[in-house]
Amino acid sequence: KNEVEQSPQNLTAQEGEFITINCSYSVGISALHWLQQHPGGGIVSLFMLSSGKKKHGRLIATINIQEKHSSLHITASHPRDSAVYICAVRSAGTASKLTFGTGTRLQVTL
Amino acid sequence: DTEVTQTPKHLVMGMTNKKSLKCEQHMGHRAMYWYKQKAKKPPELMFVYSYEKLSINESVPSRFSPECPNSSLLNLHLHALQPEDSALYLCASSPTGDRGLANYGYTFGSGTRLTVV
Hints:
The complex is a heterodimer.
Chain A: E1 4-7, E2 10-14, E3 19-25, E4 31-37, E5 43-49, E6 52-56, E7 59-64, E8 69-74, E9 83-90, E10 98-100, E11 104-109
Chain B: E1 4-7, E2 10-13, E3 18-25, E4 31-37, E5 44-50, E6 53-57, E7 64-70, E8 73-79, E9 87-94, E10 107-108, E11 112-116
Parallel strand pairs in B: 2-11
Antiparallel strand pairs in B: 1-3, 3-8, 4-5, 4-9, 5-6, 7-8, 9-10, 9-11
């Protein structure tokens, strides 16, 4: 079993739909990251969470430390949101490593 | 400057060549990372440098040789690679912090797409 599990693996939505991507992890963490990667491209950090909820534009990320679960929500989805969304957890330490989930491939159609 | 810059963006090399990938950041981050990413897979950690010293080597073959000549620059020297080493190589950086201080994030570069022929 992977230390970081994401669901769904693939997601197709119509423009305007509300989207939720889930992440569960089984290890102790100091922070959880939500990342976005467009095809063939580099990775953009969307959120870093250690508790509660964060919002940036149409994106909302939540984390429940007790349940070891995080969600990424996209409101009013748009075709430009089409990308792979990756959950990654960070262990404690001064230069600690990220453990990545397998990613959720999102396609938003018109 | 809030970016991690990687050069070159694309590289094709033969199995007998020697080449280097370069990563640069001017955010004052003292932790820098190399990741390897195969198609449709998550990134895999290769190396971590902390304060210009190698702190993590994830059992990477010696044909990959990292170097951190100063706090802004991270290199990955390549020699005698195999076709299966073809991948996207990502560099990242982050501030370092005390244990338990989670309020610091990663910045990733856009990667070097390497093809070994």
